[in-house]
Amino acid sequence: MKGLSLFLALLAASAAQAQQAKKPDPDFLGGRDVQQVTGEQIFTHICQGCHMPDAKGAVGAGRYPALASNPKLASSAYPAVMVMNGRGGMPPFSMLLDDKQIAAVVNYVRTHFGNAYTDTLTADAVKAFRPPPPPIDTKEH
C-alpha cells in the first residue's frame, strides 16, 4: 500500500510537467491490463516529472540528471539498476514496476532524446538484477 501511495504521489506530481510534452494517456492506469503499458507511457507518467519532458533534467529543489544524450546509458544495466534501486533523491521503483515495465522504460529512454543505443534490454536481464527472495521459514512457531 505504501508503494502504491508513492506511485500515485509521483504520478500526480508529474501531471503538470506531462501536459507540457504529451497529454497523459487516460488508460495508463484505467483498470485495463497494466502489463500492456509502454515505455513511453511509463516515462510520461513517472519519469518526466523530474527528468523533464525533453529528458534534459533540471536543477531546482533538487538536481535531476539529464537522460538526453547521456553516455551513462550505453550499458543497459546502469539505467535498469537506477530505476530499480534509485539513488540519492531518486526513489526506487522495483516494487512498483515489474521486470517487463522496467525493460520497456529503459529501452524507451535509450532510444529517444538523442540516445541511439539499439541493444534491447529484456525482462529476463532485468530479473537478474533483482536480489533473490528471502528464504521462507518453514519452521512452526
CATH architectural designation: Orthogonal Bundle
Number of strands: 2
Shape: globular
CATH topology tier name: Cytochrome Bc1 Complex, Chain D, domain 2
Largest sheet: 2 strands, antiparallel
Q: Evaluate the radius of gyration.
A: 16 Å
Fraction of residues in helices? 40-55%
CATH class: Mainly Alpha
What is the domain tally? 1
Enumerate the strands of the largest sheet in spatial order, edge to edge or round the barrel. 1-2
Q: What is the number of helical segments per DSSP (H or I, 4+ residues)?
A: 5
Q: What ranges have pLDDT less than 50 throughout 5 or more consecutive residues?
A: 13-21
Q: Order of helices and strands, N to C?
A: HHEEHHH
What's the N-to-C terminus distance?
27 Å
**In what range is the share of β-strand residues?**
under 5%
Question: In summary, what is this structure?
Answer:
This protein has helices spanning 2-21, 39-51, 77-85, 99-110, 123-129; strands at residues 58-59, 63-64.
What topology emerges from the helices and strands here?
Elements (H helix, E strand, L loop, with lengths): L1 H20 L17 H13 L6 E2 L3 E2 L12 H9 L13 H12 L12 H7 L12
Antiparallel strand pairs: 1-2
Helix pairs in contact: 1-2, 2-4, 4-5
Q: What are the defining features of this structure?
A:
5 helices; mainly alpha; Cytochrome Bc1 Complex, Chain D, domain 2; 141 residues; 3% strand; two-stranded antiparallel ribbon
